[in-house]
Amino acid sequence: MKLAAYLVGTGMHVASWRHPLSQPDASININALIEQAKIAEEGKFDIVFIADSLAINHESHPQILNRFDPIVLTTALASATEKVGIGATASTTYSEPYVLARQFASVDHISGGRAGWNVVTTADATGETALNFSREKHWEHDHRYERAEEFVDIVKGLWDSWEDDAFIYDKESGQFYDRKKVHEINFKGTYFSVKGPLNIARSEQGQPVMIQAGASVPGQRLAARTAEVIFTKWDHIEEAKKYYKKLKGQLKDFNRKEEELLIFHGISPIVGETEEIAQQRYEELLHLTDPYESLKFISGYMGNVDFSKYSLDTPAKEVKFPKVNSIQSNFNEIKKIIDEEDLKVRDLYTRFFSSAKKDAFVGTPTQIADEMEKWFTDKATDGFMIQFPLLPRDLQNFVNLVVPILQERGLFRKDYKGDTLRDHLGLTKPINQFTKVGPIV
Questions:
Q1: By Cβ atoms counted within 10 A, which residue in 94, 172, 196, 421 is the most buried?
Q2: Nearest Cα to 197, choosing from 251, 168, 143, 158?
Q3: In total, how many domains does the chain have?
Q4: Residues 165 and 228 in one domain
Q5: R_g of the chain, CA atoms, integer Å
Q6: Which distant-in-sequence residues (6+ apart) come within 8 Å of 217 by Cβ?
Q7: Which residues fall within 8 angstroms of residue 81, CB to CB, at 6 or more apart?
Q8: Cα separation of 232 and 266, whole Å?
Q9: Same domain for 405 and 347?
């Protein structure tokens, strides 16, 4: 199985910064983030992952209010580690393809071929992101994905501007490069016009690994055509198995094989040497959670709902949720569960967003390993995107206590067998699409 560590300051739990073991400024403390990346590398994780958002408000998660730009951060993490892959989020809606292609190619070189790009179209329930980019309105979901289709094709084309042996560096003849092995892309589409070539060569792994979170119909199409890693999260294993089969089944439409796309399921484990210790650690975070502060965080995802006018004991199905221009599939799933379960307003954060809800991933090392093995062997996932509730504690405990069990069962590597992120994930180096094309004019 594959393992990814989600690095987000003090942890995914909204109250993690209040915990006695936390370093409250961890999201802007490079030493704290390097420590987390090194722990993940100690545990032989495939990749550490850095998310992003391009707007904040008073409802934002504490760990995104003050944090580094992900692409800049990856260069520091690359310099401090040797093997673990490093993935960063960047938006196709609020970026330019040429700039982003150059940035990720640079990180891929700096890291020795360990970079991954998490392709997002930017979910925004509040619509505030557009206001930071000289736009009046956040584009609708399908519109964003139409742009993303072009964006990804341009970036991948630019990454292939130079064939692998294009640079000769012949001091005697004075030939720096072979003109026949550098290519323009000359792309013209609905949203972009990009000539190329890119002014940086291909890296050791050819191209950065393409990561996405495709759940909607347009998202699944883009994933089936271009993604190599998918990050998803389902409430039950049966739903995850259906998604796994459906998405893998779409690969044939683009002449791709199932092993060319890896699906990572999101979990938030809290491990304890005993069930009692794990439960205690879970309860600690619950006790630090202010109900209405956590509801503000939910509001940011569910369309700026003013929860202050509802009592904590109000049935959640009575809350007026507006239609949101965000991660529509997630919103629909949440609404469905609210309608089916007898949830109160006070239950909403713990049920959907706590990253430490009481489930099969809160328990002993063996219990957590058993559950991970079940999801993996039942083909509900190829691996796990682990959003640790409290960092670095939960990451270190997982590495010390759970990873050895997975290794003993033959489910996870005991050491790295390669140097690049593609090596770790078992992905092949992409063939340069311009290899048999003529030179630039």
A1: 421
A2: 158
A3: 2
A4: yes
A5: 22
A6: none
A7: 34, 37, 38, 41
A8: 6
A9: no
Closest Cα to residue 240, out of 379, 351, 353, 105?
379
Residue 13 in domain: yes
Contact 92, 151 (CB under 8 A): yes
pLDDT at 305: 76
**Other C-beta atoms within 10 Å of 235: how many?**
14
Domain enclosing residue 321, as ranges: 290-353
Q: What number of other Cβ atoms are within 10 A of residue 293's Cβ? A: 13
Give the predicted TM-score (pTM) of the model: 0.90
Q: Does residue 230 lie within any of the structural domains? A: yes
Asked if residue 11 lies in contact with residue 18, where contact means CB atoms within 8 angstroms, the answer is: no
For the chain, give the number of residues: 441
Maximum C-alpha span of the chain: 80
> 272 CB contacts (<8 Å, ≥6 apart)?
278, 279, 280, 281, 363, 364, 397
Residue 423 near residue 85, CB atoms below 8 Å: no
- pLDDT-based confidence at 291, cuts 50/70/90? confident
Helix (H, G, I), strand (E, B) or coil at 203: strand
Containing 217, the helix (H) or strand (E) segment is helix 217-226
Looking at this protein, which amino acid is placed at residue 131? L
> What pLDDT does residue 327 have?
54
* Residue 370, helix vs strand vs coil: helix
Q: How many helices (H) and strands (E) does the chain have?
A: 14, 14
CA 87 to chain CA centroid, Å, is 7
Q: Are residues 202 and 108 in the same domain?
A: yes
Question: Residue 81's closest CA among 25, 40, 132, 124?
Answer: 40
**Nearest alpha-carbon partner for 259 in 269, 267, 251:** 251
Please, are residues 286 and 43 in contact by the beta-carbon 8 Å criterion? no
Residue 47, both tokens = 């990749």
Structure confidence by residue, pLDDT tens digits, 98-140: 999 999 999 999 999 999 999 999 887 667 899 999 998 988 8
58 and 203 in a single domain? The answer is: yes
Q: How far apart are alpha carbons 72 and 50 in whole angstroms?
A: 11
